[in-house]
């Protein structure tokens, strides 16, 4: 059986950036989807993970190809699920003494707990009772790597379209503080970097952001004309309600200019460590 460089389990939005990048780097790959559809011009393997499979049965993994790295893009929600996937794949794809390495994509949401410091890094306390964090910890204990991703944008995901959903009232705007993002292309670059320098990645949890701490108010004001006239006449456009509310709140809270201070924004993610470690710079920073 030919060994591929990477097997993507669950080829969704991230894979629309990852697959083209793998082609550019001439890295062999295969990907799975629930329905076997094509993703980024590549046909996928129809496959669905069954977390409830009997521990001694590994039938669901037999038809998956052999790969050096297995990327898990969907959330696992218990240590049992992580063990089932990792052990099941390894037992059906035995290539001692060099077994496959596992990379789990997670969320920076695990750090959304009270912190003692303003700056939050990958080493900061996280919610150890979070179901996804529990599953990720199991991946780490087996020598895998976890990439905890900030808010994802790129392609069809346009943050400008989120404003109306996340802030329907002035009180909603008032509650909005910091925002952390990372572009899909930079997620793909990070995955390739991990496979290229596994010694730095193995057993490590990484926080992945574009290095910016965004101020929701500044974004809302900056996108005030997002619903402007179709002819692009920004002067005639009526500012969004969210932009108006942000300016009212600036006056009320004596904020003289945007963006607000890091202290006012609260939780701020230290997002440069991954890029520094792997000798990279985000390509799509600043939304």
UniProtKB/TrEMBL annotation:
Top-rank lineage group of the source organism: Eukaryota
Naturally occurring in which organism (per UniProt): Friedmanniomyces endolithicus
Name this protein carries in UniProt: NAD(P)-binding domain-containing protein
